[in-house]
């Protein structure tokens, strides 16, 4: 079943009809009724949801993070605003994909299948205590709340998490973040980035999860 969340009845009815033609069950909600439903529905019922499509609705009520607390089903935003700023804003809210309208219903189904397939093939995050580090460009979360980080610091954290606790050298971190052909930046900039990152993490989670050894490099404590 596909769950559509939109304030407009015509939109919900339209998607219901289109999915029905493809032999796919769907259900439509407004923001308020969806907010109540997703927090009270039985776990067994949630297992039948293949994906959530979020259209025009209240983002305060329909939060991708709240949805993900209950289920791992993909959350996809349907956007009518064709701007980079709006697309980035939607991704930052926690959705798995942004689809610009108009779009064929089969493309929506194909994207849902692709997201689900990737989720089964590999974990999308690393959990360290209250901190969740994503591998798709999203900011890490502390107790479910995003921790905004500058792009370099976020990529360093992702790189350390991708190495599953193994120690990596400063050169390895530099090459991963800046690229092996970048000769306009000094390698020592890595130390500055990591110093700032460690301070922010220590303030938010109460300890420093990055272990460093001189000449040996850095390791994320899993």
From TrEMBL:
SMART domains referenced in this protein's UniProt entry, alphabetically: Trans_reg_C (SM00862)
Pfam families, per database record: Trans_reg_C (PF00486)
Keywords, ordered alphabetically: DNA-binding, Phosphoprotein, Transcription, Transcription regulation
Ranges of residues in domain OmpR/PhoB-type: 123-222
Biological process annotations from GO: regulation of DNA-templated transcription
DNA-binding positions: 123-222
Residues annotated with 4-aspartylphosphate modification: 60
CDD domains, A to Z: trans_reg_C (cd00383)
Chain ranges passing through the membrane: none
GO molecular function: phosphorelay response regulator activity; transcription cis-regulatory region binding
Protein name: DNA-binding response regulator, OmpR family, contains REC and winged-helix (WHTH) domain
UniProt keyword DNA-binding, yes or no: yes
Domain Response regulatory: 1-116
Coiled coil: none
CC per GO annotation: cytosol; protein-DNA complex
